[in-house]
Amino acid sequence: MGESTSRWAEITGGNAGERYAARFAELAASGADVHGEARFCATLAPAGARVLDAGCGTGRVAIRLAELGYECVGVDLDESMLAVARSRAPGLRWMTADLSTLDPAVLAGEGGPDEERLFDLVVTAGNVIPLLAPGTEAQTVRRLAALLRPEGRLVAGFGLDAEHLPLASAPTGLPEYDAWCAAAGLVLERRLATWDGAPYDGGGYAVSVHRR
Fold it and tell me: Which distant-in-sequence residues (6+ apart) come within 8 Å of 17 by Cβ?
């Protein structure tokens, strides 16, 4: 996430991959819906669209979207999480990278024109934004916005209070996030309270869709 220590790394020590995967496996086995993020993202772009799962973790969102016919790339800085993603979907592209310094040329792969380096959708699920390294948030949003095609969308879901975060308090609020997006050339398209599409009511979790 950031070259300085991310909040995520401080919490987990960088070895949470198997524990994180086991938690969601238990949820799925209990009948819980663990694909809300992917289902919502599928309403924003047609199958075949190019999607970047930024802060992909164990790959849950990208793997599901790939199953639905999307061209997915996953990026994270936590090798323990990426190890799980690579074991579950070795055919997808998983990259170790710092979100605050992402380079479109690196994401393009071998060759390809500039347009092929860009994405129709960039998704940051799982509290990626508030768990970045302190001070890298605005730069990260700029980097992610630069990876979008014209009219492409940045989708972010994150907690706004301690109840919805693995932190004592929320380091990021919606006014700050919206300001970072605006500075990066993005406009707010809609804001929801859940990945299932419930209207945002000022609560402690928000899903924001910004368009380039």
Answer: 57, 58, 78, 79, 80, 81, 82, 83, 84
pTM: 0.89
Nearest to 99 by CA among 2, 11, 6: 2
Sheet holding 148-159, edge to edge: 93-96, 71-76, 50-54, 119-124, 148-159, 205-211, 187-192
pLDDT tens by residue, 115-129 = 567 999 999 998 999
pLDDT tens readout for residues 188-199: 999 999 999 999
Please choose, from the candidates 121, 113, 125, the residue with its C-alpha nearest in 3D space to the C-alpha of residue 189.
121
Domain boundaries, the chain: 7-211
Class of the 7-211 domain?
alpha beta
